[in-house]
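Not sure how to ask, but would you mind making up any protein sequence you like and the tokens describing how it folds?
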Amino acid sequence: MKIKRGQKRMEELEQELASQYDLHFDNEQLLQEALTQANYLNEHPEVEGNDYQRLEFLGDAVMQQSTAVYLFKRFPDWDEGRLTELRIAMVQTRSFAALSRELHLDRYIRLGRGEELSGARQRDSLLEDIWEAFIGALYLDQGQAVVMRFLEQILFAKIDEGFFEQFVDYKSKLQEYLQKDGPVAIKYQKLSEKPLANNDQIFEVEVMVNQQVLATGQGKSTKAAEKDAARNAYQQLTTSAEKK
């Protein structure tokens, strides 16, 4: 019964992929392997196949290469540094967990009982690995052209939505930029804290270097407002430098 139920769940996933993304796996075993954790196989010796780890290795390389090719073609006027910066943000494994959930891969992972009880199905580190394994499986089954078409739908389209901004550490980037010629004093200072209608609060923070205000930012926490201020300052400084 367990195997039959597992086969039914794979069919459900395949139907979902076909209807939402026009994806069709010829080799269902590859899709199953991408969603199979090692402990599941240990607990089900009757199940043939491998766990996701080899496909994860391949998927990592495919993601790096596919993203680099897309950015190279889309932004012909960007220099190497700017292309690298965006590529790094896009292939941050933290974003892969969000993509796994968007694709509902978390619902179909084959987990060992102990891992299931420990909440591994919602563990970001596992979902990041599963995303890469899924991409590796798709590459082997359908080839690079299909992978690129799929990534244009679910990943590359998010560039214009600002999706990858959340994975950039702008406070560190601003610090590196400001201290490239030597140490400077960087300070974040809260300016205000205002209540919102839904019982949330909005914080406003300014970032200063050597007592000079560079930019302000807002967020629903002091930390979020500091990141927003750092992002505004970094983008203003780098944009100004490019124009010179």
